[in-house]
Design brief:
Elements (H helix, E strand, L loop, with lengths): L1 E3 L2 E3 L21 H18 L11 E5 L7 E6 L5 H24 L11 E3 L10 H8 L3 E7 L9 E3 L2 E2 H13 L5 E2 L10 H10 L7 E7 L1 H20 L4 E5 L5 E6 L19 H9 L5 H12 L3 H9 L3 H11 L3 H17 L9 H12 L8 H10 L5 H8 L6 H14 L1 H7 L4 H12 L5 H14 L1
Parallel strand pairs: 4-11
Antiparallel strand pairs: 1-2, 3-4, 5-6, 6-10, 7-8, 9-10, 11-12
Helix pairs in contact: 1-2, 4-6, 8-9, 9-11, 10-11, 10-12, 13-14, 15-18, 17-18
Amino acid sequence: MGQEGNTIRYRIDRLGIPLIEVATAPVIHSPKEAEEVALAIGRILRATGKVKRGLGTIRQDLNISIKNGALIEIKGVQELELLSLVVEYEVQRQLNLVKISRELRKIGVKEEDVKEEFFDVTEIFKETECKVIRKAINRKQRVLALKLPKFKGFLKRELVPNFRLGTEMADHARFWGRVGGIFHTDELPAYGITAEEVEKLRKTVKAEKEDAVVFVADNPENAKDALKAVAERARQAIKGVPEETRAANPDGTTRYMRPRPGAARMYPETDIPPTQITDGHLKKISSRLPELPEQKFERLMREYGLNEKLTRQLLDSEYAELFEVIANESKVSPTVVAVFLTETLKALKREGIQVGKVSEEQMREIFRCIGRGELAKEALPDLVSWLSKHENRSVQEAVEKLGLKMISEAELARFIEKVIEENKILVQEKGQKALGVLMGIVMKKLRGRVNAVLVGKLLKDKLEKL
């Protein structure tokens, strides 16, 4: 969790939680296929009813390799929807690294050209306007620099969107050098660093026109370790794509996590004795298998009248079990329930609404209210949004705060009469054909507080009597 001096803090609340790994052979050949395989595995796991749901309980790790690239392990992809994007970005990253390697070798750059020769350039930045460097100098830290021969222009080369070779070097510097980041001449002048300071820097490290310079502001030990990591990453860039373990970012990109483990770490589990799997044990398991995903797919379509697309979306979500509970106890249209648990919740997530903070019991209560005629289904997005921002508050409180209490049929009838009166010219001109326009006016004013079917019925009755 963190480190303060010689004290390291660990979390122990996950001790005792069993970890099960499901691995595939190297037979997946496209980003889309990787996502489909993960979805299929997820469906099977959810079908057991024994797998804990929620963010962080199931993670996807990927091993990705391409021709002329390297084997890269990517850990911790939380969202299934990100899998194909993570694969696409990693392939793109490796292709661009291969391209950079070829270009560097073509202009004659060799691994041995990158030397671990560090220059103390603190004096150059004594009067700098760069806040990061000024803060470091005020703490009596130093600014150390490293020359990368013929690397000018390469550090700003984009590997994937908003991620450059310089970013890779910074990740390595942070990991090995414990620093906040690096500066390099491909991105300067900027950050309060002037062109004059850059020129003095280049002269001090004896950089030629085609060279790049990387520098770090920290204590000398950390700065040296960081620049050693940068030098090593530069040598790897000349060679090609380094094998490593990377961590997934929320946007589908990845960052350096650690070197890939060697053969020395590959040994049998020492804490768990081997278990003999007998034919009898397999038969016992087979006799108690749960409903498999394809069986459930057919049953949901048959019993609840869902279409194929909606049923598939429901099975691929984490709400298939909740759907049946709500559909059976609330008597709300199963299609309405399924659309909410898949498409509506997904749309709210895209808007930044933390729908995971709304409990299953709160969702059940919302639909029970809809089933009793106390709420309109149009109120669903507003209610979930409010509850996600006000944890441990009740559905009734949300209804009151948002003013979503259903109006009576008598109140609705009076409101409809008022709308017709305000639009009598339109009604006189179009007659029954004015229904759609009037419906839109009423629903815009009363959405979430009235039943759309009832609005349509009352409007139609009123127009027929005119």
